[in-house]
Amino acid sequence: MKKISTSVVLFFAIALIVKGQTDILIPVSTQNTDLIFKVGTDNRLYQAYIGPKLTRAIDNKAFQRPVHLAYVTSGTDNLFEPAIRITHSDGNPSLELHYVSHLTEKPEENVTITHIRLKDPLYPVEVILHFKAFAREDVLEQWVEITHQEKKPVTLYNYATSMLYFDAGKYWLTQFHGDWAEEMKMQENELTSGIKIIDSKLGARAHMYQTPVFFLSLNDKSNENTGELIAGTLGWSGNFQFLFEVDEKNALRIRSGINPFASEYSLQPGQPFITPSFVFTYSAQGKGLASRNLHRWAINYGIMDGGEPRLTLLNNWETTFFNFNEEKLTALLDDTKKMGLDMFLLDDGWFANKYPRKNDMVGLGDWQENKAKLPNGIGYLVKEAEDRSVKFGIWIEPEMVNPKSELYETHPDWILKLPNRPEHYYRNQLVLDLANPQVQDFVFNVADGLLTKYPGIAFFKWDCNRMMTNTYSVYLKDKQSHLYIDYVNGLYKVFARLRQKYPHLPMMLCSGGGGRVDYGAMRYFTEFWASDNTDPLERIYIQWGYSYFFPALAVCNHVTSWGKQSLKFRTDVAMMGKMGFDIPVNEFNEKELAFCQVAVKNYKRLSEVIWRGELYRLISPYEENRAVLMYVDNTCDKAVLFSYTLNSRYGETFNNVRLKGLDPAKTYAVNEINIFPGIRSIFPTKNVYSGDYLMKVGLNLTSFQPLTSSVIEITAE
Ligand code: DGJ
What we know:
Elements lengths: L5 H9 L10 E5 L3 E7 L5 E8 L15 E2 L14 E4 L10 E11 L2 E9 L5 E10 L4 E10 L5 E6 L2 E6 L3 E7 L7 E6 L3 E6 L10 E9 L9 E8 L4 E7 L4 E8 L6 E3 L5 E2 L2 E7 L2 H17 L10 E3 L1 H4 L5 H14 L3 E4 L30 H11 L3 E6 L3 E2 L4 H5 L19 E2 L5 H17 L3 E6 L20 H19 L5 E3 L17 E3 L6 H12 L7 E5 L7 H8 L3 E4 L8 H23 L1 E6 L6 E7 L5 E8 L21 E7 L13 E4 H6 L11 E9 L1
Parallel strand pairs: 22-23, 22-31, 23-24, 24-27, 27-28, 28-29, 29-30, 30-31
Antiparallel strand pairs: 1-2, 2-3, 3-4, 5-10, 6-7, 7-8, 8-9, 9-20, 9-21, 10-19, 11-18, 12-13, 12-15, 14-17, 15-16, 16-21, 17-18, 25-26, 32-33, 33-34, 34-37, 35-36, 35-37
Helix pairs in contact: 7-8, 9-10, 10-11
This protein binds (2R,3S,4R,5S)-2-(hydroxymethyl)piperidine-3,4,5-triol.
(2R,3S,4R,5S)-2-(hydroxymethyl)piperidine-3,4,5-triol binds next to loops.
């Protein structure tokens, strides 16, 4: 993503330094969006336009007086939040950036990359703004590269990825916040004059309290199908910051990037500082279109193997917690097969001997099989899985350590902790220092060691159950303010090494729930664990929240014993994303087992539509006592609709649900699936409707019974 091709390097090497050139327009365009820069008479770069694509060719006399400096600096005449702030090696705290040159590449038909080179006229400091435009998806990705050739290091205080400007009457910000087990709560507020910041300071993960995603609507609040907005997200698995500043002229600037909090960075001459990517899409048709743009981009470019199938699975975490042995696990392998699932996933608790991992207070860091629980090792389980034709996956949390572990005893210098204050625990554990290359090797070897010894391992669940507190790196010595950045870059090095060796191993990103999903990490992961809260009622809101920014195939939803709802309701909720089970299958009665077996078959038949179809959120749980959404494949031949009744009040009415995304000219068979044995379908007979009817009149499919659901399969005849 961040590699600059040789042709570009060559171009910059031989580029003519353009002095005093004005009227240069630099468009960055997708199929429906234009972001246009202009070089001003002062040789600075301005953002001239962002919005719907301008249909007529623009000449270079357009945008006569642009006012928004593209990557605004600090220390000279800027009075608002800068994109970049540095102190030069001579102590001078000012920076000016003038346009030097730009270049556009087209590595593939759908992708255009634009590089704009800026330079300080007085100091040898250079900034390159990179923009990658994905035409069909209508998505833009941008990042920045900062270098200098001063004699000594310069200090970076701000180093934004992106600075975008908008001029509208009003601005509405939709943010997603929460906590453990209550992720992705959506809130929309009007921005007023001054600054609003959404950020995280958790260090070892991006979110938990605030998620690195937002919608910014222009003029009016936007809804699902109307309204002008951008949807933005930062690909960075650590401290992030989005800053929204409304100035005295009611212009809005949005600064996105790594959180500069406690992170001044000393940059050596010649060493590039490359920011993470900001990914965004512009929509003039509400949040629904923005989500579909991002989903398509994620599937095609943003997440690991977006075009590949995902594995349905049985996980043992909520069934056994730490209390298991070979016999119990072998029985779960039988259950995996019986259910028709692809894989068994062995969770936490399988390792450590000096301090056996019997609970979350011990053993983390000691990645050898626990001999009491698994006398025949992981290899035995892999073989047992193979004998049953199911795959075997395993949980690891290699970035962390319990104080009660051999790793803690042997490598205290590998652990992030203040030398002169008490250790501070969260889930009884500490974070390893991934800024240290030796620790990077260790973490890589945890994963690689397992895969080398047991090549049959088909999946990793990579967990991360705490953030950084009382943090200090022995390795970084007097560069402590590099830690938040070097940690994440160290982690990415490990992921990149793993991906080089195991390019297609499916891996689930997990962090005590949905604390670590962002598009920086998702380049290496096929999916993520959305929340530890698996109560299906809560899950509807949580999954609804993620659906705005992440495609269904990446959102892991498990059927568990949380919540008092029926097994059908729990299954129907899990099915709207990447479905798995984490429930004692051996306690199912005959009907429950039969229901689940059929649901798994239904899911497999329809997974292509759910994973890669276009998502239409039809009725929001934030607006009604129900939630309805559907996925439609790209031929408009197949669709799946999920309808959930959350509650119903006395006298409540639920209107028909009008479908979306179908072909009005086609005729569709509409069938209810996932019917629990013995229960009557809401569509007992064959139902055939035109697409036109389904989208204009709609279906009456919502039950008034709280916590009930229906799944509807829609097939063109
Ligand atoms: C937190 C995860 O979210 C759970 O699914 C489980 O893997 C536990 N960690 C294991 O410790």
